[in-house]
Design goal:
The structure is a single chain. By secondary structure, this protein is α+β, with helices and mostly antiparallel strands. The protein has one domain: Muramoyl-pentapeptide Carboxypeptidase, domain 2 (2-Layer Sandwich), CATH 3.30.1380. It is built from six helices and four strands. A four-stranded antiparallel beta sheet has the order 1-2-4-3.
Length: about 180
């Protein structure tokens, strides 16, 4: 019998209430050291994002499409939206804010509840997914969450250095879109 060298990634579904419970656990971590930290939740999302990228590549092949890194930007965006919607996460739209920063707008998004705490798993998922695509570590910053309403959020995606610059500018009161444009 030949050893199995690679198995297709497994995808599981979870109810959207999972995210609220996980977020609440992370936010109360300071009260109980045994509870998962916010970083641990993002790290779990990161691992899932890397696996979702592999699944996306397999899904593209099943659709008769090229590998993700060989798709035009326009085609990639349309197929990415179809993929995430098809696996139940919701709609993802990509929009460049500068040469170095991409905005990811999500709607009808399973994790985006409009509550404080944001989309911790999704931040990690996008970092892992797009990091695999780029072949380099990327950083994701959620910049619009609760005030967008249930199901909506906005993330910024860029290199670790660029997103560090954006974060520092935002801490000084500069709006994220201006910070991204100057990165």
């Amino acid at each position: 019998m030949r050893p199995v060298t690679s198995l297709p990634p497994r995808i599981v579904s979870v109810p959207v209430e999972f995210f609220a419970g996980l977020r609440q656990s992370a936010l109360t971590a300071h009260a109980n050291a045994s509870v998962l930290s916010v970083d641990a939740i993002r790290d779990a999302g990161f691992a899932a994002g890397k696996a979702l990228y592999d699944h996306f590549g397999s899904w593209l092949a099943e659709q008769g499409e090229a590998h993700p890194d060989r798709l035009s930007d326009e085609r990639f965006s349309r197929l990415l939206e179809a993929y995430f919607r098809g696996i139940g996460w919701g709609k993802v739209e990509m929009q460049p804010l500068s040469d170095a920063v991409m905005a990811l707008d999500v709607s009808d998004w399973g994790e985006a509840s409009g509550q404080a705490g944001g989309c911790l798993v999704s931040s990690g998922i996008f970092a892992g997914f797009f990091g695999r695509l780029a072949g380099a570590p990327l950083s994701v910053l959620e910049v619009e969450a609760a005030h967008q309403g249930p199901g909506r959020a906005r993330f910024l995606l860029g290199s670790i250095d660029v997103m560090g610059h954006v974060w520092e500018a935002m801490e000084r009161g500069i709006p994220y879109d201006r910070a991204a444009a100057s990165a």
